Hints:
Oligomer: single chain
Amino acid sequence: QSHLWGPVDGADARLDPASQPGADPTKQAGQRLDLLAGVVLSPWAGHRFGLEAGWPIYQSLAGPQLAAGFQTIAGWEWAF
């Protein structure tokens, strides 16, 4: 899975990028490539459980942003 995002259009005039570098909309771009693996189990008719986990294998952030780390998602689907 890959993510690509550009600079934010517009800014909140109440924020001062000189004192809060994260408020500068020109420094909020970046790209990331995640390596994810998952499993789907269907133990009963009409029920599905899923679990996905992974890490970013490439990150390039433009500006002072928090890097992504290990991520998981779980879900349950019930069809009737």
